[in-house]
Amino acid sequence: MKKRALVLTGGGDCPGLNAVIRGIVKRAAQTEEWEVIGSIQSFDGILREPTEIMKLDEKAVAGIHFQGGTILGTTTKGGPLAWPVKENDGTWSFVDRSDEMIRKLKYMGVDAVISIGGDGSQRISQVLYEKGLNIIGVPKTIDNDLSATDFTFGFQTAVQIATEAVDKLVTTAASHNRVIILEVMGRDAGWIALNAAIAGGAEICLIPEIPYNLNSILDVIKKRFVDGKGHVNIVVSEGAKPKDGEVSAEKSDEIGNKNLKLGGIARKLLHDLKEAGCEADMRETVLGHLQRGGVPIAYDRILATQFGVKAMELAIEGTFGEMVAYHHPNIVSVPFLEAISKYNVVNTKSSLVQTARGIGMCMGD
Q: What is the value of pTM for the model shown?
């Protein structure tokens, strides 16, 4: 009887998810001992009745490596540790169904679980591992905010999309003598914003790691406009905030989604600049979920495939409780506790920040 690996994708979608799934299945196919199945919408497919799973063989994954999204679906809500239950009075409560789920997985003959997800998903993985589940993690996030790996797949594609947006906005800003503010994703890490700003040639970049001073931004704008002519492009990370100010965010009203919904900093910045007397014509653009979708670039397809192959090899070896990671030039694995111990933010003294400053880019401070 073949051993069985269960694959799932959790959290936000990300370019390269399908390449990971394909890598896992293709590696398993090199043995005669393993078969692979997928859970629909993360662990929800196992927790639902009837169970929602799909067979993953080479035919099922043929040609999916360049497709965006995930053939397994994903979710940012609920999960085995906090499953939403609607009470008779209409309110919602949350129950821990992890023990029930682990029993069900054993009944299904699952020998290994490969969870493809970000920081939150890997924290769930650690809890499940401590409960005895044979689980392996694959790091996934466009935000590049997991410190145990040099890069996460999907990040470079998100940077490419953001850079293309900057390229387009530079030309329209110059044509209309405008200040254009582009808001990009990243949550509490400024990796996407900083990389796209350097690649796209923006004059100002605002990231969460460096709270900004509005007067510094005003000074740059004033210097670049003469007799009403000039232009400025600003790239701002959704988690950026002014000095002594708060992040622009609101609580999620989605059942089971506890994350703050970041967004609105571009509009706030435009409003604050006007209030401070900036006379330039200004517009804001929010790139939003365009950064999450679409075809992954070659770099992310390769990295995702490497992660998938490595994850399956860990399962074959019987190595669990670890997350696959990229430590240049090698694909390795690290314990979940190491993977989730530190949030990966931009070091304000790093060479990347120094490069930005070296080309005259204002970081808002």
A: 0.93
Tell me, yes or no, if the two domains 3-153+296-328 and 158-292+347-358 fold the same way.
yes
The candidate with the shortest Cα–Cα distance to 4, out of 147, 106, 95, is 106
In angstroms, rounded to a whole number, what is the distance separating the alpha carbons of residues 1 and 341? Answer: 38
Hey, where are the domains in the chain? 3-153+296-328, 158-292+347-358
Q: Report the alpha-carbon distance of residue 268 to residue 277 in Å, rounded.
A: 14
Place domain 158-292+347-358 in its CATH homologous superfamily: Phosphofructokinase domain (3.40.50.460)
Interval 342-363: pLDDT, tens: 889 999 999 999 999 999 999 9
Active site residue 143: yes
CA torsion, points 180, 186, 189, 194, in degrees to nearest 10?
-40
Going by CATH, does the domain composed of 3-153+296-328 fall within 3.40.50.450?
Answer: yes
Which residue is catalytic, options 13, 44, 119, 143?
143
Burial of 337: CB neighbours in 10 Å, binned 0-12, 13-18, 19+: middle
Helix (H, G, I), strand (E, B) or coil at 328: coil
